[in-house]
Structure formats: structure tokens, C-alpha cells
Amino acid sequence: MFEITKSTVINSLKNISNDKINTSSLTLNSIRKFEFNNSDLSFEISLANNSDEIKNLIVNQLKKDFNELKNVKLNILAKSTPTVSTHKDARKDAVLPGVKNTIAIASGKGGVGKSTVAVNLAVALAKDGASVGLIDADIYGPSIPLMLGSNDKPKVYQAENSVKMIPLESHGIKFMSIGLLVDDKAPIIWRGPMASGAIKQFMTDVDWGELDYLIFDLPPGTGDIQLTLVQTIPLTGAVIVTTPQEVSLIDARKALKMFERVNVPILGVVENMSYFIAPDTGNKYDIFGSGGGERICQELNATLLGGIPIDPRIRKGGDNGVPMVFGIPDANETKILMDISRKLTEQVNIRNSNASEKIEILLGDED
Ligand SMILES: Nc1ncnc2c1ncn2[C@@H]1O[C@H](COP(=O)(O)OP(=O)(O)O)[C@@H](O)[C@H]1O
Ligand SMILES: [Mg+2]
Questions:
Q1: What residue owns the CA closest to ligand 1's atom 26?
Q2: Residue nearest to atom 16 of ligand 1 (CA)
Q3: Residue 205 and which of 42, 156, 219, 334 are 20 to 30 A apart at CA?
Q4: Among the atoms of ligand 1, which is closest to the Cα of residue 117?
Q5: Measured distance CA(364)–CA(367) in Å, rounded
Q6: What are the pLDDT digits (tens) for 207-256?
Q7: Domains, the chain, with CATH or none
Q8: How remote is the CA of residue 117 from the centroid of ligand 2, in Å?
């Protein structure tokens, strides 16, 4: 039996598995006014939604995990958006003051599903209540407008000292694409400098408003263009997308090392096209081998956020401009993608709360 403290309570709440409540991103900071006397516990907790059903779920879980509990008094501080921690970084605050976190989605190789993952994670985060923006920074093949089913020209307006662009909106997220600013017929050698200029413009001249997450779909690879971009963007961290076969893993390793070299935290690795389940027999086929994502995570001490199977509906969602997590909410693949987005939130919170929790631990667990 564990002692009842903020952190054991959080661990207990993380055991709740129910679609209506997302406890994966809870940190010590989510709980306030924590009081435990004899057998009575009371606290306040910030969660995305507040209902008697959620309250009961929490109380039941706590009573199950802590025998000695008799009374649980609980106040849920419901927010229209979930509590999203903020990456405190002077460079980010200077260019993107309204944006809490910036996340790069990167891969060593092209064609591994980086844009597919970026779009579905962005929409998944938004479905959980976060405000999300997505920047298509892939100068080799900007595909986000196609995947989000919107190719309009962004509107502009005259702000106080500059002209501002209004991002496009689709499926609950805001987005901009480099395809709108960079001439795709220009030789690649020119597109590099144009791209970092355009990315800067996306950060300074686009009216993003308040965002919990701004996600960048980076060009694949680890060359100069990627390095320049990574150093242009004040990043909370990066997610690496790979497929399980060795040729892809070699390049994923290079990408991980590139981020390490420039001190960008790796939030995790997503293994895409992990396996295929035959719809007629239910048999599972490891088309590109298995366990690759897990191996490089162990090797390089990164977190595996999850594995996404090959599913024709994921491809169709991309081609038709309706991301899987939006178009087919009940599919198992959607659950997998939602789960990956929640693990990502958790990793972001861990990075962001490190500093403040260190102070809290020094001061003791209580308020
Ligand atoms: N898990 C998946 N199942 C089926 N098709 C996928 C999956 N992931 C990506 N695809 C398809 O593979 C192609 C390449 O994906 P894309 O996201 O454009 O890769 P990248 O951005 O890395 O170049 C697209 O047609 C996409 O729809
Ligand atoms: Mg792409």
C-alpha cells in the first residue's frame, strides 16, 4: 500500500482507462489544495471536462487503489481547453508569444508517413481540446493542404506595423503551407534559403492567436536545410517518424543525433507502417520487419510513442483531405493515433514541468 501523496494519487488516476477522461498528461501541477487527514482526502484538479461521471470514475479509482480512503472530496477545475504546460523559452516568447509549445515532426527518410503522422497528431490534439496550428515546412513536397482538404489562399490584413496572414482552418486546426510561399519550380538549392525565410515569416507574420501546440512538418533528411530550419524554430522538442526496416532506421538514427547535437529534446519516436492486419483473416503481417522503432529507442534512450499499422483508410484519409482521426473516430487506428498524441502531451509536460517540479520537490509535496 502506497502512502497518499500528490504523486501516488496521480499515478492512481493514470490507471483509469476511459475514453471520456485523459489522465496521461497529469503532473504534480495539475493538483492543488491537496489535503489528506486520516481517511479523508480532498483536492482540486484541472481536467478538460467536468461531470459527475468523471468525478465518480476518479473517486472509484482512488478508493480501489487506497483501501484506507473513506471520503474523497474533489473539485474539478474544468477548462475549455486542457491544461497544457508551457515551454518557457525567451527565444520562442520573442517570436511566438501566444504559442505554448512548438513541436517538429521529422524523419530521416521521405515517404515514411511524416506528413500523415503530423496531420493526424495535430487533429488528435485538437480533438482532446487543445488549440493547434500546423506549419507545412516540407520544401520537397508540401502535402498538408491536400491532406487537410483545403488549398485556399490565406487572407491578409494590415496590422499596426505589418501585414498579417490569417492561417487556414480545417478539421479543428489552423495551418499554413510552405507551398503557398515557396516556388516549387525553383531548384532545391534556392529553396533552402527561401524555406528558412518563409518559416520565419510563418512565425512572425501569421496571426496564430493563442495556441497550445504549433507543429512543424519538416522536410525529410538531416542536411543543411533541415539544420538551418531546426535552428530557426525555437522548439520544445521533436518527434521522429520512422518505418521498421533497417534502411529507414539508419536515417532515423541520423535525425535523432542531429537534434541531439543542436540540443533539441527528442519527445519520442513514432513507428509508422508497423504491421498490416489482413481484413479478411485478421492475420498480422510485419511487412517491414518488427521491433525496429523499439530498438532505436532503447539504443538512443528515446521514448517510443507508438506504432501505427498500414491501413488503406489512413492513405485514403490523406488523399481525400479528411484525416483518419477525424473521418473515422471509432476505428482502432484512430485509437492508436489518439493514444500517441496523448503520450506526446505527456512527454511535453514532462519536459516543461521538470524545472518547476524540481522547485516543488525542494519545497515539499504540499502546496
Ligand atoms: N500507416 C499508413 N497506412 C497506409 N498508408 C500510409 C500510412 N502512412 C502513410 N501512408 C501513405 O504513404 C504515403 C506517404 O506518406 P506521407 O505522410 O506523405 O510521407 P512523408 O511525409 O514522410 O513523405 C501517403 O500516400 C500516405 O497516405
Ligand atoms: Mg510529407
A1: 315
A2: 113
A3: 219
A4: 17
A5: 8
A6: 999 999 999 999 999 988 899 889 989 899 999 999 999 999 999 999 99
A7: 6-81 (3.30.300.130), 90-352 (3.40.50.300)
A8: 9
Pocket of ligand 1 from Cβ distances under 6 Å:
107, 110-116, 143, 220, 272-273, 308, 310-311, 314-315, 318
Query: Which pLDDT value is given to residue 302?
Result: 95
Mean residue pLDDT of the chain comes to 89
Segment 98-124 shows an average pLDDT of: 97
Which residue, 29, 2, 64, is CA-closest to 349?
Answer: 29
User: Of the bound ligands, which one is closest to the alpha carbon of residue 308?
Assistant: 1
> Per residue in 64-74, pLDDT tens?
999 999 999 99
Task: Give yes or no for residue 363 having a pLDDT over 70.
Answer: no
Quote the ligand 2 centre to 137 CA distance (angstroms): 9
Calculated CA dihedral for residues 148, 151, 152, 154, nearest 10 degrees:
70
Write the residue with the smallest CA distance to atom 3 of ligand 1. 310
Ligand 1, atom 1, residue with closest C-alpha? 310
**What pLDDT is recorded for position 355?**
47
Ligand lying closest to the C-alpha of residue 119: 1
Q: What are phi and psi of 363, to 5 degrees?
A: -85, -5
- 3 state SS of 25: coil
**H/E stretch holding 190:** helix 188-204
Is-above-0.85 flag for pTM? no
Report phi then psi at 113, rounded to 5. Answer: 100, 25
Which residue is closest in CA terms to ligand 1's atom 9? 113
Which ligand has the shortest distance to the CA of 109? 1
81: number of Cβ within 10 Å: 13
Tell the residue number behind the cell numbers 523499439, with chain if given.
294
* Per-residue pLDDT tens over the stretch 319-350: 999 999 999 999 999 999 999 999 999 999 99
Cell of 174: 489552423
- Per the listing, cell 486520516 goes with 38
Instruction: Give dist(CA 196, CA 228) in Å, integer.
Output: 7
